[in-house]
Design brief:
binds S-adenosylmethionine, 11 helices, binds iron/sulfur cluster, 3-stranded mixed beta sheet, 11-stranded mixed beta sheet
Length: about 325
């Protein structure tokens, strides 16, 4: 199938913690796609002019509901023909309150200091994206970043703000959070206190209390995201049972490429654990399908997890039917 030609630079450019700009977050580790630095005086023009060959595959992760455009074809990059920037995906400093064992940006070892606020503001002011998505590190544990976002919100009140966060913030942080963010993704890694603490080094009750407060206020559209690792794979169904009852806008089951950690050598330990975890998750989705439909929750699972957990086409068709009967 032919790929969809896309003005990728207008969609969601990625700016990493060093200020390097990439056409999208998929390319953050590919130096040949680095557009430049936000420190460069001509960076705005370089973003607009960027024209390199690039293409990718995409896969739909939606389990519920059934969507008409679910067959995805992938993208190929074409040069921007306007300056209508949809969103910037901004990685601030990597300072974090957590110690996640699997952290893909190695935040726990980071000892740097983020000093690019003025450069960012200059770029935002020049290109005026419709929104920004922010992450780190942990933005809620970075007072200077929160001050910066409050400044941006003050100057550009209609600019949408999305945060990707571990949500392990004191309730006193809620007021500013609710002013700043229209949408939020809460990343959860483990569902029992002990597992959560072992992987993230944090207290799960604190996270749940903060998320509860955000949901109760009802202003911010919330996505609850569970990242599967070898140490929490057997708790995905517990997360799902809880998450559905929170009635967020969406629930995501994401993969840390966890099967790469679980190479078998003789004894088929992980094969058995993953098979059992998949069975428990399938049962949880089935028993929650009607409620997912009724509450209008979008349920996503990474394509790799569909295979690992046995969420095959006929299973998915069945739960979609249960969800639509009530939805
Ligand atoms: C690096 S974190 C930064 C934002 C915030 N601290 C958080 O954890 O949500 C951004 C996203 O990357 C995910 N992530 C972290 N380590 C990962 C890994 N090894 N594989 C895949 N995703 C990962 C997190 O769950 C989170 O949703
Ligand atoms: S083609 Fe795909 S990988 Fe390349 S910039 Fe566009 S969205 Fe990103
Ligand atoms: S909370 Fe996010 S940035 Fe911090 S260590 Fe965990 S994954 Fe990394």
């Amino acid at each position: 199938m032919e790929k969809t030609r896309q003005e990728c630079m207008l969609k969601n450019i990625f700016i990493n913690h060093d200020g390097d700009v990439f056409p999208c977050c998929r390319l953050w580790s590919r130096p040949q796609y680095r557009v430049g630095s936000i420190r460069d005086s001509d960076i705005a023009d370089r973003i607009i002019e960027f024209d390199k060959e690039c293409s990718c595959e995409t896969y739909s992760s939606v389990i519920i509901p059934e969507m008409s455009d679910q067959v995805e074809t992938g993208y190929s990059l074409v040069k921007a023909t306007s300056t209508a920037f949809n969103s910037f995906n901004i990685e601030f400093g990597l300072t974090c309150n957590a110690q996640c064992a699997m952290c893909c940006v190695h935040a726990p070892e980071w000892r740097g200091s983020y000093e690019l606020y003025d450069d960012l503001l200059r770029l935002i002011d020049r290109l005026r994206p419709g929104g920004i998505a922010v992450q780190g590190g942990e933005v809620l544990a970075q007072p200077r970043t929160l001050d910066f976002l409050a400044t941006v919100k003050g100057r550009f009140p209609s600019m949408r703000m999305h945060i990707i966060t571990n949500g392990n913030a004191p309730l006193s942080a809620f007021r500013l959070f609710n002013v700043l963010f229209e949408t939020a993704t809460f990343s959860i890694v483990g569902f029992t206190d002990n597992t959560y603490r072992t992987i993230m080094g944090l207290d799960f009750d604190k996270t749940k209390a903060f998320i509860g407060k955000v949901l109760e206020a009802g202003k911010c559209k919330v996505s609850l995201k569970y990242l599967v690792t070898p140490l929490n794979v057997h708790e995905a169904h517990l997360f799902l049972d809880w998450a559905v009852r929170q009635k967020p806008a969406s629930i995501q089951i994401a993969d840390s490429n966890f099967m790469a950690y679980t190479k078998e050598d003789g004894i088929q330990f992980w094969t058995a654990v993953v098979e059992r975890s998949g069975r428990m998750l399938r049962k949880a989705i089935t028993r929650n399908a009607a409620m997912i439909g009724e509450a209008g929750i979008e349920l996503h699972a990474a394509p790799s997890l569909r295979t690992a957990f046995g969420l095959d086409d006929s299973y998915v068709a069945g739960v979609r039917q249960s969800a639509s009967a009530k939805g």
